[in-house]
Every structure is written in C-alpha cells, then in structure tokens.
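Table 4 source record.
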Amino acid sequence: WCVTARNWWQAHLDGVAAPVVLSSTNVAVLELVPLDVLQTYSVDVPTDPGDIDA
C-alpha cells in the first residue's frame, strides 16, 4: 500500500507514521519530508516474504 507524503508527514507529526522503504520512495517526497526523518522510519524488504512477521 502507499500513502501520500503529506498524509505521512501528518502521521509523523502525530507520532503514528508508517515504516518507509526508501528504495521504493520517490525522490519528490524530499520536497515535503526531510531525509533524516525518513531514515528514522526506514525498513528493508526481506528477500523471502516468509520472513515477514504478521
């Protein structure tokens, strides 16, 4: 799923932002959200989907 940068930023300000896969994030997001903030929420995508905890 995806969320708009504006809504993600508001969620961050509210303390409930979702994790971010930086390699799948458009560079235009940096116009709204500082990179250092995105990096604090950064996660990797596992090579084996079976490794995802549900």
